[in-house]
Amino acid sequence: MELIGLLNYALFMAIFIGIYALLSLGLNIQWGGAGLFNAGIAGFFAVGAYTSAILTSPAADGRLGGYEMPFYVGWAGAMLAAALIAWPIGKICLRFRSDYLAIATIGIAEIIRLVIKSEEALTNSARGISSIERPFGDLPYVSSQAAFLGIVLFLVIAAYFLVQRQFNAPWGRMMRAIRDNELAARAMGKNIEYRRLEAFIFGSALMGLSGAVFAAFNRSITPEAIDPMVATFLVWIMLILGGSGNNKGAILGAVIVWVIWSVSEIATDQLPHEYAVKAKYVRLFLIGLMLQLVLRFRPEGLLPERTTGVTRPEDEKSQ
Amino acid sequence: MDFMELLNFYLMPGIVLGCIYALGAIGVTLIFSILRYAHLAHGDLATLGAFLALAIVSGFGVSPLAALPVAMIGTAVIAVFIDKAFYNHLRERPKIVTVMASLGIALMIRAVIQVVWGVDSESYVRGIVRPENYWGLRIRDREIYTIAFMIAVVVALQLFLGRSKWGKAMRAMSDNPDLALLSGIDNRKVIILTWLIAGGLCASAGVFLGLNTELKSMMGWHMLLPMFAATILGGVGRVDGAVLGGLIVGVAEELSVLVLPSEYKTATAFVILLLMLLVRPTGLLRGKVL
Amino acid sequence: MLELDQLVKEFTGFRAVNGCSFTVREGTITGLIGPNGAGKTTLFNLIAGALKPTSGSIRFNGQDVTGLASDELFHKGLVRTFQIPHEFHRLSVLENLMMVPPKQQGESLFSNWFAWGAVQRGEKVVARKAWDTLAFLELTHVAHLPAGHLSGGQKKLLELGRTMMTDAKLVLLDEPAAGVNRTLLRQLEEKILILNREHGYTFILIEHDMDMIFKLCHPVICMAEGSVLVEGSFHEVRNDRRVLEAYLGETTGDAA
Amino acid sequence: KADVKIGLLGGVSGAISAMAPSMLEASNLAIKQVNEQGGILDGETLEGVIGDSACNPQGGTDAATKAVNIEGVSVLVGPHCSGAVLAASGSVSIPAGITMITPSGTSPEITGLEDNDTVFRTVSSDDYQGRALARTLKDAGYEKVAVAYVNNDYGSGLANAFKAEFETLGGEIAGFAAHEADKASYRSNLAELADGGADTLVLFDYGDGTGLTILRQALENGFFEKFVGADGMKSEALIEELGPENLTNFVTSAPVGEKSDALDAFNKAFQADGGDPDAIFVTTSYDAAFLAALAIEKAGGDKAGIAAALREVSNGEGETILPGEWAKAKKLIAAGTAIDYKGAAGDQNFDAAGDVPGIYALFKVNGDQFETMTEMK
Amino acid sequence: MSALLSMNEVSGGYGDTQILKAVSIEVAPDEIVVIVGPNGAGKSTAMKAVFGLLNVRSGNIVFDGDDITSWAPNKIVQRGICYVPQVDNIFRDMTIHENLEMGAFLKSGDLSAAFDRVYELFPDLKDRPRTLAGSLSGGQRQMVAMGRALMLDPKLLLLDEPTAGLSPKYMDQIFQICRDVRETGVSIMLVEQHAKQALAFADRGYVLAAGQNRHEGTGEQLLADREVAEMFLGG
Ligand SMILES: Nc1ncnc2c1ncn2[C@@H]1O[C@H](COP(=O)(O)OP(=O)(O)OP(=O)(O)O)[C@@H](O)[C@H]1O
Ligand SMILES: Nc1ncnc2c1ncn2[C@@H]1O[C@H](COP(=O)(O)OP(=O)(O)OP(=O)(O)O)[C@@H](O)[C@H]1O
Ligand SMILES: [Mg+2]
Ligand SMILES: [Mg+2]
User: Fold this and answer.
1) pLDDT of residue A273
2) With an 8 Å Cβ cutoff, are C140 and A183 in contact?
3) Ligand 2 centroid to B179 CA: how many Å?
4) pTM of the full predicted structure?
5) Distance of CA A247 to CAs A17, B253, D362, Å?
6) Whose CA is nearest to atom 29 of ligand 1?
7) D87-114 tens-digit pLDDT
């Protein structure tokens, strides 16, 4: 019983870590790869979650939806919608320097959040959408979790593989060059706008996918889920902690942050509740402090980006 | 709607709010241009200032205005301490690292406030204050203080930055820190000075916000984005720009309910900001194109 | 090959390039000299698409290229170096070179995902070329250093190296000699000549080093205050009174 | 002996962090009574495991998963916020077959969940309160009101129900607007609402949050003469900050136990325990926990049978059990006699969807306390 | 003759990499010393070492009787050394005038004499003192940078390739200025790639290569040295 319970919880954690790993990989393409400071992750996450929700949920009064499509259609739709939203945003905002882009994307995410909260006909406003299809949702609890985890793992591995390829290829080198010196990259014939947009859209699509997975897992999506604190900043902490520019780091960051986040709560939950309430704040304090310590002692993250790239041994010989 | 109504219920609140944003935005803009990062703990630092003043008000029974200078000094010192303890050693790193660190600091400050003062709303003075009526203009003392304080601060700061040696040193350091060092400017002093100014102003923003509304543990955090919008709107690195930006954001937020559904009020600041970035990314008063 | 017609570039209230016209013939090395602030670099920025001219037109290989972005011009065969080095400071020196060749297959996401083998083969070719260039520039020992850690002169060499990584038709060199050790510079001159004679590169060269101009350039154009002052052979220009006054200075003039 | 656990998923951090502590205290009171009166099942101790649902879906599922899997709880009391309830039930409690009773998830969306009859609530849907408030106001002679509501599931649920009912009854809504929480100024919002010409503002928000700000700014600037709130506005903070003298024209509805023996019993016990029986959602929190204990006892500890047992102990038939009467209930259950729990917040007879009708009263401020004016129908 | 500045067997580098290997350089009062060498030899690094911008691992640096090894740069400036780096040597967002003003940051009182002197040396700057330095041409920037350093009347001036990018006319002028400045009692240590010209007017010169001293001697000596000429001066 205890063991099964722990296993169940481990499954759950792994699913959540997978969801966040997708976000953090998406961010890694944008920030680690192309140096785009997207502080509106929550927005793309939300677009993905709601798109898949609308596509896969049963009909309901007074709002768009009721297409009851299979989950994979919903998820593909989520990626597409996030990418489509990212396109004009990227067109407009990618000209800005990184801090500006950050603030612009925060603003856009906030606007997306307000639209979701307020436009009843589209998203059922503050009540959210429930009864979303979850793949393998009809299986018994444990097997359903395990099967879902299987899907999530597949997605994370696939995403990792694709992104890793990109980073190690001339594409990655070109993006780092663009990040380093835009003017020179342009003079060397690189189409910066196009490349950035490419990275931004691809990263956003992954974020949208993550949102769809999240909605399916919970079978519901409500506006609280897209609070920037959990859907944007936590992801940033994951990436910075793990090591931006390094895909393993992005995933490792998701693992560590979520485990610490959850385990520290198990610890504080043991306290009597009059302390437990304060302990929540102490816990936030400790998480902040932990971040400081990491930045102090591993400012490049646990797995830093390899700044000087890959040179294979045969190159060395050829000289 | 007649003009007096527009003035009393839309413009005045917008201006007062704008002054508060401006006080915060000045600090943001200084840090942005001199130390070169977006300081995300600025809002929570303002909250801290507000609660420090609350502690003084309730501890010694003085008026909030009397507590203001003490709170400003206290917060300024804390800001310097935070910089020393947490940001200083990140100086050589990419700026984003410091941005992340400041986010962590925001969490830490907020947690301290929540542990010490709890999460309930508080206020400096219980009860309500009805406005005086000056020939139809309805305004409260505290609103006059807010506006007057902001004006005084801006004038003083402009003079300081433009005329004094240290003001110029701050600009030089924002421009080329290495060269500033070679010119004999002690960068550490400039940084301390920057934090003293930013921290003090930040506290004043918090106190005035608390004075005009309530004190809540999240009050500063919610002010953060409008402050950044104000900063960029006015042009990064420009004190006068921050003020202009703050006022515009404040007034626009209040006026927005006339044209937009009121649930979109929060979005006003961003919409202005995005338009600004599109049309003129250097801000209204030509700031640094960072 | 390159025709400039009445180019003007105005910065707020200041004309840096003021009605500049000249023609560059294919296969030449054109020297561009002139006092500091004459507008030489600005002219390069206009030709290379980093700035858009206020008025006037640029024709390259018979096509009107006025106002094209620099990446498009690069693909038409126009490469430039920067007076103040613009290296990719976090990329290794080797990567700085390897990123240059255009149309690398690995720059497409699609190829990376589905044609990894071809990408790898392309990399090998590019790497060989980069190593050769490094060897020539005496930078082999710093190949794996981040380019930001190079010395000032090494960065200038790297700038030059980048132009060797593509099949350029027209190369704009902005003061390649400034800060470069003279012994090495003599070798660079050789290389430029080889590129010019054997590979058919056309050069425009901004320099203040008269030895280099003398050795390489014909014709030489002297600019002053945004427009062409004199154009001709090195000796014609060198002995022009206005050039002596504005640019070379009396002492050097006397010595010559 | 092994403990029997129930999960108390509070919104300890997040939007309602100010209310959560007293709600948890009330739930803990029920647990304490169970343990004092012989424990649960074979004299085992009942233990309440607190989890923080943080008032958002991520927190809700996390806390629920921990409670169900790591702690092995038999029943979940909570989460406190509707979004967390939807997510936690969808991904955890329904698939795992664990019964969930929320004391404060008031979203109408919860009614329609496909939950295999495992999701219940001891608080009524916002729909009920909004409609009841509309009827009461209309009866009391309010004809023309403006409505301001916080833009979340709570505010919009109440406001829409109120609006529909009030208009059906022939009242006029002369202003209807949502607002985002935590802005510094709402004066322009108020001016805009007041433009409709109503003299009454109905405010669906939280009294220790934005509701306080709005009410203060309305009072200070002389917008509106009368103010009406719903349960969220019934907060001590309001009286403390604004002063009772300024709140003479303020009334607020809130769920109450019908004046009943049950409520008295609870009030007494909670007061003795150091709690404030007038705090928001404490009665529902208590009922949820006590019902959970009864259901566990009835089902003999079998988790799968708890949902059905819950209906049995509260379906209105059988010997009445009042708050605190654990020993009696235990004896009757052992004897196989049918029991019916009458809760502090009402009879707690669940309908087919697991909802209860609410019982509300209108409160006004008297001295530094809220005081019941009228019951609401 | 006691040296004004002496670097004694200084070793050090950036982070872990060792760049300077026991480099010794001396500058006497009223002396112009030129350092030449291939690119990447460590010339700029040697200057940074003097200015406390380097991890000095062994050896010491003595200036005017004080051991200034690892002093903070602002103290070194105060002590009377000014430094013009090779790159990034102006405040881009400040006007020419303000750039000069920052040069005299440590000086109080009337600056007009100092301004006059600099403007006299560089009349180009005088014409538009309110121009942002960032918009100047490469050569004009070099002038601003020099001017900034001269504002403080230092005892020792460190110039890292002051003539790079300057027109021949200005190159001569800069060398002339160096001589003029020396006349006013300022010693100069400069790095040059225009090595022949520089050695011709300098009092003494050092040749650095691969982070080590290779040759030293008076300007004429070095110019006459066949090996030096071939290896380092371009034949
Ligand atoms: N962005 C700009 N804004 C304003 N003025 C500029 C700008 N860029 C260049 N200038 C001005 O244009 C003039 C020409 O500059 P340019 O860099 O082309 O000179 P140059 O001939 O390359 O000189 P040098 O040999 O010193 O490099 C200078 O006076 C400079 O101040
Ligand atoms: N920040 C740094 N980190 C690591 N290595 C560096 C750094 N700066 C310079 N170097 C290395 O130190 C060596 C010496 O550099 P330095 O700048 O002193 O050369 P230099 O003699 O001034 O050359 P140049 O004539 O080209 O300016 C070079 O090989 C360079 O790669
Ligand atoms: Mg130039
Ligand atoms: Mg150097």
Assistant:
1) 60
2) no
3) 18
4) 0.87
5) 14, 41, 58
6) C37
7) 899 888 998 899 999 998 888 888 888 8
Domain that holds residue E152: 31-50+86-232
Interface of E with C in 167-196 (CB under 8 A): 167-173, 193, 195-196
Domain with CATH 3.40.50.300 in chain C: 2-87+167-255
**What Rg do the C-alpha atoms of chain A give, in angstroms?**
20
C32: phi then psi, degrees, rounded to nearest 5: -125, 115
- In angstroms, how far apart are the furthest CA atoms of chain B? 61
Residue E15 within a domain: no
CB distance D180–A114 less than 8 Å?
yes
CB-hemisphere CA count at 13 Å for D206? 19
| Cα(C64)–Cα(C73) distance, integer angstroms | 11
Domain-by-domain residue ranges, chain B?
3-122+138-279
In this predicted model, what pLDDT tens digit does every residue of C87-123 receive, in sequence order? 998 889 999 999 999 888 888 888 888 888 888 899 9
Q: How far is C11 from chain A (nearest CA, A)?
A: 19
**pLDDT 10s digits, E182-215:** 887 889 999 988 888 888 888 999 999 888 898 8
What confidence score (pLDDT) does residue A44 get? 95
Beta bridge partners of D25: none
Q: Do D137 and D129 contact (CB within 8 A), yes or no?
A: no
Mean pLDDT, all residues of chain C: 87
Report A:187-246 residues touching D (Cβ under 8 A).
Answer: 217-225, 227, 230
Report the separation in Å between the CA atom of B50 and the middle of ligand 3, taken as the mean of its atom positions: 53
> Is the distance from CB of B186 to CB of E76 less than 8 angstroms?
no
The predicted structure's pLDDT at residue A313: 37
What pLDDT digit, counting tens, does each position of A262-313 carry?
A: 777 777 766 666 676 677 788 788 888 888 888 888 878 888 876 544 443 3
Element (DSSP H or E) covering residue A242: helix A234-242
Ramachandran quadrant class, D151 (left: phi over 0; alpha: psi -120 to 50; beta: rest): beta
What are the b/e assignments for B14-36, b being 16+ CB within 10 Å? Answer: bbbbbbbbbbbbbbbbbbbbbbb
d(CA C153, CA C179): 5
CA atoms within 13 A on the CB side of A210: 32
ipTM above 0.95, yes or no: no
Measure B276 CA to nearest chain E CA, in Å.
22
Q: Verify whether ligand 2 is closer than 6 Å to residue C145 (CB atom).
A: yes
Rounded Cα distance, D317 and D359, in Å: 20
pLDDT at A314: 39
Is pLDDT above 70 for C208? yes
- Specify the CATH class of C2-87+167-255 in words: alpha beta
**E70 occurs within a structural domain:** no
Token pair of A234 as six digits: 């936590």
- Asked if the structure places residue E6 within a domain, the reply is no
Model confidence band, residue A14 (pLDDT cutoffs 50, 70, 90):
very high
The fold of B3-122+138-279 is ABC transporter involved in vitamin B12 uptake, BtuC (1.10.3470)
What Cα–Cα distance (Å) separates residue E226 from each residue in C184, D132, E95, E206, E211? Answer: 16, 106, 46, 15, 21
- The pLDDT-based confidence of B290 (bands split at 50, 70, 90) is very low
Chain mean position to CA B60: 26
Domain layout of chain A by residue ranges: 17-226
- Mean residue pLDDT across chain A: 85
E20 CA from centroid of ligand 4 (Å): 13
Mean pLDDT, residues B172-176: 86
Distance separating alpha carbons of residues E127 and E139, to the nearest angstrom = 15
Q: C-alpha angle with apex C144: C140 to C148, nearest 5 degrees?
A: 105
Q: What is the largest CA-CA distance in chain C?
A: 67
At C138, the amino acid letter reads: E
Residue from E10, E18, E20, E45 whose mutation best tests the ligand 2 pocket (most atoms within 8 A of CB):
E45
> What's the CA gap between E231 and D72, in Å, rounded?
81
